[in-house]
Every structure is written in C-alpha cells, then in structure tokens.
Amino acid sequence: ETSNSQFLIQTQERKKMAAASASSIVVHRLHENTSSLLLSSSSKGLHHHRSSSLSLLYPHNNNNSPTTPLIQFSPKGFANPPFISPAEKKKPSFQTQAVRQLTGFLTKAEGFRFAIVVARFNEIVTRPLLEGALDTFKKYSVREEDIDVLWVPGSFEIGLVAQKLGQSGKYHAILCIGAVVRGDTTHYDAVANTAASGVLSAGINSGVPCIFGVLTCEDMDQALNRAGGKAGNKGSEAALTAIEMASLFEHHLKD
C-alpha cells in the first residue's frame, strides 16, 4: 500500500510539472560562462521560453506533454558568442563612400584645344565623320579657333601625324578619323591593324589622349551607315570621347 501511494504521489507531481505556470522562470545556459534568464509562457499548445536572443518553442502532443524544443535565434542582444546573420556576412568589408572615383566632364570643354587628323582616302565616309565631330565640338562650347584639322593621304599615316601633334604640347586631345573598307586582298588587314596600333602608340608616346575614330568595315554600306546613316555618326561619338578624355587629363591627371 505504501509503495502504491508513493507511485500515485509521484504521478501527480509529474502532471503538475507538465502544466507549469506561464510565469515560472527557468535558467538556460547560453555559453560556457554566460547564462540568461528565460521567461516561460504558454499559448495555444506551446510552451515558449524567450530571451532577447534565443526562443525555445515546445510543441505539445496529444497527451499535453512537451516534445523536443524548437530553437529560434535573433541577432539582437546575443553577445557571447555573437550571432551573425547571412545578410551581415555578405556585407562588404569596405565602405564605398570612401572610394575616390574620377571621371571627365562633358560640361567643361570650353578652353580646350583639339586637333583632328583626317584620312582623305574614302573621303565620302571620312568627311561626314569630320562634320559630325565639328558639330559636336560646337555643341559643347569648343571654339572654332581651338580646333585644327589636318588631312593625310590615308589611315596608315594617321598615327605618325597624331604623335607629332601630341608631342607639340598644343592640344588637349587628338581625334583620329579614317575609314578602311575590306576589299579583295589582305591589304585591309594590314592597314586596319597599323592604323589601330599607330593611334595607340601616338597616345602612349606623347602622353596626350589620341582617340580612335577610324572605321573598319566589311563593305561601304556599313561605313556609310556609321557616317551619319542609321547607325549614327561615329565622328560625333569620337568627339565626345575626346572631350571627356581631355577633361580627365586636365582636371585629374595633369602633372
């Protein structure tokens, strides 16, 4: 009888513990040397233990007894060890506001001097390109007296003249205009490659921006379309590049 009474008492105590009050306080160890008080509450079949950084959810089964707890974390207030969310891990370690970004300005073209080297070969294409460049310079307040136009026989000769002009120190940028159209021989490849490398070398050797405005096209239709046709005017685009590069060098890269 005594053992049966003790069994009944123990059973009643277990039931009382399972239905513990919502205001009871339990101590949960968060780390080796850190503990936090967690408040226990019950709502709709869940025992909910919460701190500022850790939530323990105890779902109930049909017998109204808690099952394995579900753990939820929140970064707020969790100090030892710190909880880092995936979004915080992806944050860059540098501040973009501190990065200095330099660029040229299209609104400060007044006072700049430009030279335009134009190939006479395929003049039906190069002249509209020149006109497009001159019109753009005018729109951006470049004075006519600050523009010099030099004609050369073909695109092959552009690089040499551009380098000479750059070394003179008179100009802020050199605009190179030409048109190379593929023919029946490999002459096209030699001229196109030489023109490109010549303009590049002119800029490197003189220290003055030399803008590549030489068209390299498969046929004459392609060239005309890019000299004021349906593909726009590449001479005008090259002039904008010349203005921006002149501004960049003058305001940020000047010795």
Automatic annotation (TrEMBL):
The keyword Transferase belongs to this UniProt entry's keyword annotation: yes
Keywords in alphabetical order: Riboflavin biosynthesis, Transferase
GO molecular function, one term: 6,7-dimethyl-8-ribityllumazine synthase activity
EC number annotated for this UniProt entry: 2.5.1.78
The UniProt record lists the keyword Transferase: yes
Highest rank taxon of the organism: Eukaryota
Alphabetical GO biological process terms: riboflavin biosynthetic process
Main EC class the enzyme belongs to: transferase
Record InterPro entries: LS, LS/RS, LS/RS_sf
Pfam annotation, one family: DMRL_synthase
Record's function text: Catalyzes the formation of 6,7-dimethyl-8-ribityllumazine by condensation of 5-amino-6-(D-ribitylamino)uracil with 3,4-dihydroxy-2-butanone 4-phosphate. This is the penultimate step in the biosynthesis of riboflavin.
Family: Belongs to the DMRL synthase family.
Protein name: 6,7-dimethyl-8-ribityllumazine synthase
